[in-house]
Design a protein that fits this description.
about 450 residues; mainly alpha; three-stranded mixed beta sheet; BTB/POZ_dom; NPH3/RPT2-like
């Protein structure tokens, strides 16, 4: 509970100025109590965020430097209406600030601390005007309560999103972000000093598979944040040493929640509100920019879902090419459904996006032919994929050809170019290829 202006006995070591402030504060409190007890008529109306408050000047100017300046600087000595149109938090924040000025008790919580801190800054409720003023009270609550737990810090950060730019001015958002990153890295097993020195994909894959279980306790909390704030939290975590490969589960959870509602598994683009479409496009492009660079950090199925959404939302070409390259690097782990990307057009083109799959396969083959490691990490030594990986890709492409060969709009040149991309060493038998050709010829 907030207990504004509790009277204290000054010690002899307290400076004279501090004693005067305490005496003045006590006098103000007694004056406020007297105003209420005598039911003195109000002498000022404050308009904040569309709401009107009928109050008294003295309790307000005794705590708020901003209101004191407005009242003292007014040309009209009988100023009776005061407008605060830009007050952070609006009428709800001003009501609590006014209660504080009048000495009325109320509870500070994680639900109101963000707007209270910003409103206090706006109203200049500092120690210059009263001992234990609202700025110092809110700062104490932030340091001692709100920012000491993950849920509290995330809640304050989320509520601060609507208090820009004041929340940035008082460094509330940056403090929340730093607290969140610190708490996650302190508690997580995935934040270790230095770089994980391993070239073993099996070990790396095992670490990534355990990441979801480890981050479950905080991943859901972060999904309430706006995408630009979420990005700042992720960057802060990495700066504190959080392993980037372990970000997969939280990025997946955030993407699935934010991109919900997109019908990316059907043919043709359906109408969507332009503003909503733009927001989802920004979310998707940001998520792709944050994806871990390590191989196997994300499943091929998830990458396929992102790629479908990227094509559907018409993101930047760079975003789509990045996803195509990532899928190509892990093509050996893909299944048929991952490649059956619908063609989101009504131009009478093929049912499935054949060109995209062709580029994915080209990325895979280029990495194989060039002898480069199928990874984004330049520090790792080259390890060629096992023969079984190439054979899986061959079988996958034969199944893909058989699936799309029933499409009457698939041209002969496209069919042949896809078939020719399948390397001979990937074909254990020719049965799959003959089956695809047979279906195509019948159609």
């Amino acid at each position: 509970m907030v207990e504004p202006d509790s009277e204290e006995t000054a010690s002899t070591s307290v400076p004279i100025s501090s004693k005067k402030k305490q005496l003045l504060t006590s006098a103000m409190k007694r004056t406020s109590e007297w105003i209420f007890s005598q039911e003195i008529p109000s002498d000022i109306t404050v308009q904040a965020g569309g709401a009107s408050f009928t109050l008294h000047k003295f309790p307000l100017v005794s705590k708020s430097g901003y209101i004191r300046k407005l009242v003292s600087g007014a040309s009209d000595a009988d100023l009776s209406v005061l407008e605060l149109p830009d007050l952070p938090g609006g009428p709800e924040a001003f009501e609590l600030a006014a209660k504080f000025c009048y000495g009325i008790n109320f509870e500070i919580s994680t639900d109101n601390i963000a707007m209270l801190r910003c409103a206090a800054e706006y109203l200049e409720m500092t120690e210059d005007y009263a001992v234990g003023n609202l700025v110092s009270r809110t700062e104490a609550y932030l340091d001692e309560v709100a920012l000491t737990s993950l849920s509290g810090a995330v809640s304050v950060l989320h509520l601060s999103e609507s208090l820009h730019p004041m929340a940035e001015k008082v460094k509330l958002m940056s403090r929340c972000i730093d607290s969140i990153a610190y708490i996650i890295c302190k508690e997580s097993q995935l934040c270790l000093p230095g770089r994980t020195e391993t070239n073993n994909d099996i070990v790396h894959s095992s670490l990534v598979s355990n990441a979801k279980t480890i981050v479950d306790w905080w991943a859901e909390d972060l999904t309430v944040l706006r995408i630009d704030i979420f990005q700042r939290v992720v960057i802060a975590m990495i700066a504190r040493g959080f392993k980037q490969y372990a970000l997969g589960p939280v990025l997946m959870l955030y993407a699935q929640k934010s991109l919900r509602g997109l019908e990316i598994f059907g043919r043709g683009r359906k109408k969507i509100d332009p503003k909503q479409e733009h927001e989802k496009r920004v979310v998707l492009e940001t998520i792709v920019s944050l994806l871990p660079r390590e191989k196997y950090a994300m499943s091929v199925s998830f990458l396929s879902m992102l790629l479908r959404a990227a094509i559907y939302l018409e993101t930047t070409v760079a975003c789509r090419l990045d996803l195509e390259k990532r899928m190509g690097l892990q093509l050996g782990q893909a299944v048929l459904d991952d490649l059956l990307i619908p063609s989101y057009s009504f131009t009478g083109d093929t049912l499935f996006d054949v060109d995209t799959v062709q580029r994915i396969l080209t990325n895979y083959m280029e990495c194989e032919i060039d002898g480069t490691r199928l990874s984004y990490s330049a520090d790792d030594d080259f390890v060629s994929p096992p023969p079984s990986d190439m054979e899986r890709v061959g079988k996958l492409l034969e199944s893909y050809l058989a699936e799309i060969s029933s499409d009457r709009n698939l041209s002969v040149s496209r069919f042949i170019s896809l078939g020719e991309l399948i390397p001979e060493q990937a074909r254990i038998t020719e049965d799959g290829m003959y089956r695809a050709i047979d279906i195509y010829m019948k159609v």
